[in-house]
Amino acid sequence: MSHVFQPGRIGTFRLPHRIVMGAMHLGLESKEDGGAALAEFYAERVRGGAGLIVTGGAAVNAAGAGGADYGVLTDPGFRSRLRRVAEVGGIFALQLFHAGSHGVGAVAPSAVRSKLTRSVARPMSVAEIEDTIAEFASGAAVAQRSGFSAVEVMGSEGYLIDQFLSPLTNHRSDSWGGDAVGRMKFGVEVVRAVRAAVDLPVIVRFTGADLMPGGVPAVEAARFATALVEAGADALNVGIGWHESPVPTVQALVPHGKWTSVAAEVARSVGVPVITGNRVNRISQAEEILAAGEVHLVSMSRPFLADPSLIARARDGHRSTVCVGCNQACIDRSLVGSEVSCMVNPRACRELEFPLARQRSPRRVAVVGGGPAGLQAALTSARSGSQVDLFEASAELGGQFRLARLVPGKADYGVVIEHLGAELRALGGRIHLDRPITADDLDLMRSYDRLVLATGVRPRPVSIPGASLPHVLSYASAFTSPLGPRVVVIGGGGIAVDLAHFASSAGHRVQILHRGKRIAPALGRSTRWVVLDALRRAGVGITGEVTFERISAQGVHFESASGTSELALADTVVIAAGQERCADLVEAVRAAGIDHRLVGGAHSASGLDAVRAFADGLTVTTSY
Ligand code: SF4
Q1: How many angstroms separate the alpha carbon of residue 509 from the centre of ligand 1?
Q2: CA distances (Å), origin 247, targets 105, 206, 334
Q3: Phi and psi (nearest 5°) for 489?
Q4: Which of 48, 152, 240, 281 could form a disulfide linkage to 308, CB 3.0–4.6 angstroms apart?
Q5: Closest CA relative to residue 448, chosen from 377, 547, 351, 533
């Protein structure tokens, strides 16, 4: 890691290493707790070795807030919460933010419809434009007075500065639009005003490539980068894509490091440090990027949710758990105004609620089941000083993650399990593989101070005639069995979609049949369209609103929504129509009167996903 751990520099400002913790809206910014949770979230990352941290967007005025849970710099309560953040002792850049047409005030250069909020924006008057520029400057001054080390002007992702820059959203004919120079003017004037208002380094996050059909041409983006530097930017943080872009940028299917070449191109044309990011989830990848010598700093955001100590661990030569790019507990929540967390680290944003405290008198804890819920329960217990025995019936940890890691884009799910298992062992936890726990082991279970049952789920059988034919497989065995050339998947949830993705990527012709109107309705907003697009491109057929009649050696017979009888030809039929809890041990333990807690699928199979499984594992052990 010789490049990552070289000091960095922005202007005259020195950074301890070359990793920037990128801005994330957390949903804690408006929490009425005096800023305690927000400050503790950042404090834990500072303790974990984070260098420069860019805060989540601070709206420069009320209209620019991205939602009701955003902090607004004109609000004295938010300013006092920010002071508390600055006091935690890290190197913080306050991000100055205006969402434009996507904001609470829905204002924009022109009357365009926001694809995020579906409302049509009100065009800004010239006076409003000038006031907004002044508010960026006064927001920067607030940052300096509050003790921040730098500011970052948010000019990417399709927010207000981008909306002025793009011919798609700026239809003005006055000096704030008209041609490329006019469209650049707002962003340039914002940076000039911010530069004049403070003595701090000014970072500008700008869009290197908007990935919008008919958007800003590359040559204009390059001219804008130069103009931003001339206006006073000390560093450029290169964002990729707008929220509305039809090209995925940060989802799990996007290859790691995919966008660094865009930032490298920017770096060749400007004389200030350039920061790359968007799809980098390991310090080792950052090292490779920096070693290539094309950019100066690497920004990572979600990885700091997944592991607040990833810098300290890398310095000590340890691997971190990885962000798997699922977006389920972070981006998808922030899009609907919910508090952010992380699937693989459910403590994220709840650090005050679940402090890392050691018990005064350590307990002996047994956890049965080594899937996400069981592993999290075991780890949380071990971190608090308990002596943990984890019993897993199979030869490997991971539960449903062992299947998920086989799906395109989800290999990192396997890395998470490896890491959690390794951390548990390092904390003295004993992992007993190939050790099913049955009713014969009740005395052993009774001997522990605490018992957590995380026995998970199994595929739910269906009552379709022919479901026991030899070419019919459950989803669990389909992931590890030979499949015929034509595969029909029965089911319309996330597992059916994953299985179809897995089989189609291996060259099988796949059709999904499901009863509902909408396939995979529970998949997150930022991910669903990406996965469905990948299935479409792989030629996967999806037919909803079917009534199943029977399965035969030829395939699946069903009645379509229009009432016709049809046959989907299949060499292999896979049942992915839900899950049910594995309750045998639960019933035995209950009947024996042994005190216990249930987590994950053992608690309930209804609505189970990995986010809930991990969160169960955290909460049960701290309340038990
Ligand atoms: Fe990464 Fe998923 Fe955690 Fe978000 S919720 S930080 S995408 S692992």
Answers
A1: 31
A2: 27, 18, 20
A3: -105, 125
A4: 48
A5: 377
For the complex shown, is ipTM > 0.95? yes
Cite the active site residues. 159
Distance in angstroms (rounded) separating the CA atoms of residues 459 and 576 = 7
Q: Is residue 199 over pLDDT 90?
A: yes
Q: Give me the mean pLDDT over the 484-511 stretch.
A: 96
Q: Tell me the three state secondary structure of residue 169.
A: coil
Name the one residue in this structure whose structure tokens are 């899937």: 371
Res 517: pLDDT:
94
Residue 611 Cβ contacting ligand 1 at under 6 Å? no
User: Mind listing the pLDDT tens digit for each residue in 228-286?
Assistant: 999 999 999 999 999 999 888 888 888 888 889 999 999 999 999 999 998 899 999 99
**pTM score, whole prediction:** 0.94
Residues 322-350 pLDDT 10s: 899 999 999 999 888 888 999 999 999 99
- C-beta of 323 in contact with ligand 1 (< 6 A): yes
Inter-helix orientation angle 126-146/180-197, to 10°: 30
Enumerate domains of the chain plus CATH numbers: 8-335 (3.20.20.70), 364-459+581-622 (3.40.50.720), 472-577 (3.50.50.60)
Ligand 1 atom at minimal distance to the Cα of residue 331: 4
What type of residue is 94? Answer: L
Q: How far apart are CA 341 and CA 222, in angstroms?
A: 35
